[in-house]
Amino acid sequence: MTFINRLKDFAVKSPWLYRINGGSCNGCDVELATTACIPRYDVERLGCQYCGSPRHADIVLITGPLTRRVLDAARRVYDEIPDPKVTVAVGVCPISGGIFRESYAVCAPIDQYFPVDVNVPGCPPRPPAIIEGVAKAIAIWRQRL
Ligand code: SF4
Asked: How far apart are alpha carbons 99 and 4 in whole angstroms?
């Protein structure tokens, strides 16, 4: 394989990450921010990077218990992400509702609305757990290409 082909292969297999806040308390989002700017936990070590548009995204990380207020917007944004996409539920809130699970205002678990591929439990999950979840998501995404 030539050097140029290897570069193309790397570019094709380097996913963009996108984040949807489904009404989180921001605890999980602070931990996600750590994976964007603290070198020790930086997801760029895995060959991926956060992007600002759902239309560029390959892997979506969803935080929060999906409040009724954000449900429609979250579904619209999610639908803008092109296939094949991989969905990661970050924190216990999207998985089960967490501490908000009995609230009238939340729609969790999010797998009723989005096909979740990877769960990263914790309240909030530690950055190494998020990195592990992203690594699993990258492996799933590469299989889907
Ligand atoms: S899992 Fe915990 S830290 Fe994350 S959004 Fe829910 S309550 Fe906040």
From this structure: 50
